[in-house]
Task: inverse folding
């Protein structure tokens, strides 16, 4: 998932092209490439600034290292959470269905992370083919928009949410995302796009952000704020369970903060960039800073895979009991193995 920073340029002998990486000042069609030759990848030349960014430490070391940590931690804890929900807790409960849905979204995201990690560690060179690039790109958006909608009627809402998220990313599945850069000898994935598709991408991402993020954001903020305010008030005639109320208020506030911090900055920068004027020198001057900010927010958004299990833990007393039980069983098994090993000596 990358910010679509379209900086179109026109070469006298080629079609206009642009780059998603905002630090890239220009992108020219390779004059040596045969336009009639059939190939799975389009071939381009890019500026020196673009080369420095694509081969720099931010995109080849910092980002993949961060994603590696997220992947290594999120996979086991989400698998554990999924097993607890399926085997120990009644799935018919709406809250459990919602949390199991989050587990699926987080695991989907974690499954495609190794492809992105390999891509960045390999110098932003995509080696898995154009089709897999489109799938991985779309899966990044599936995770984001499957993780932000709050279901009321759990099963129907979750199914509808996946359908909407999948439908919203169909454009990415059927649009070429891989481009070969002859100067660097690499094939990029979703980092370079044709400026001929600028208006199409602009309408696409503005619509996607508004319908699948900002609308749910408004609904979620209003709903959770009302819930927190209601729980914080003393209601006459209702027994005061202070501990449970404080726990519910804390959990509601945590979910709201996670939602806002993980997804709002990324979507806000994305839609701001799509809506701003794409002409003028100021865009090129501020491009590097804006994209670095976007990368930081994008990494921050991936933390939802690690934070979601905290919601499961604090939101379900049964989940807490099962985790404690699993820990005790693991401790007992470890002690048995240790005693057996000592006895064998």
Result:
């Amino acid at each position: 998932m990358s910010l679509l920073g379209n900086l179109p340029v026109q070469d006298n002998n080629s079609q206009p092209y642009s780059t998603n990486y905002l630090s890239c000042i220009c992108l020219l069609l390779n004059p040596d490439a045969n336009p009639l030759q059939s190939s799975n990848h389009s071939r381009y030349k890019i500026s020196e600034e673009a080369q420095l960014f694509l081969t720099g430490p931010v995109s080849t070391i910092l980002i993949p290292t961060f994603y590696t940590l997220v992947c290594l931690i999120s996979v086991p804890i989400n698998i554990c959470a999924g097993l607890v929900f399926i085997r120990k807790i009644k799935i018919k409960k709406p809250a459990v269905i919602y949390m199991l849905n989050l587990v699926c979204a987080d695991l989907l995201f974690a499954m495609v992370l190794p492809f992105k990690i390999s891509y960045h560690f390999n110098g932003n060179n995509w080696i898995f083919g154009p089709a897999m690039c489109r799938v991985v790109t779309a899966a990044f958006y599936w995770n984001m928009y499957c993780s932000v909608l709050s279901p009321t009627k759990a099963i129907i809402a979750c199914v509808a949410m996946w359908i909407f998220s999948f439908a919203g990313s169909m454009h990415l599945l059927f649009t070429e995302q891989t481009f070969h850069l002859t100067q660097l000898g690499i094939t990029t994935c979703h980092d370079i796009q044709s400026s001929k598709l600028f208006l199409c991408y602009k309408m696409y991402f503005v619509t996607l952000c508004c319908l699948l993020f900002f609308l749910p954001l408004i609904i979620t903020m209003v709903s959770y704020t009302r819930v927190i305010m209601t729980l914080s008030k003393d209601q006459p005639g209702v027994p005061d369970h202070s501990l449970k109320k404080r726990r519910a208020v804390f959990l509601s506030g945590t979910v709201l903060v996670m939602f806002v911090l993980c997804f709002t900055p990324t979507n806000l920068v994305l839609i701001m960039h799509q809506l701003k004027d794409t002409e003028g020198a100021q865009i090129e001057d501020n491009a590097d800073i804006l994209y670095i900010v976007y990368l930081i927010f994008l990494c921050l958004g991936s933390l939802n895979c690690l934070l979601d299990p905290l919601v499961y833990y604090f939101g379900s007393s049964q989940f807490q009991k099962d985790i404690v039980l699993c820990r005790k069983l693991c401790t007992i098994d470890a002690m048995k193995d240790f005693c057996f090993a000592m006895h064998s000596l």
Summary: The longest helix spans residues 198-232.
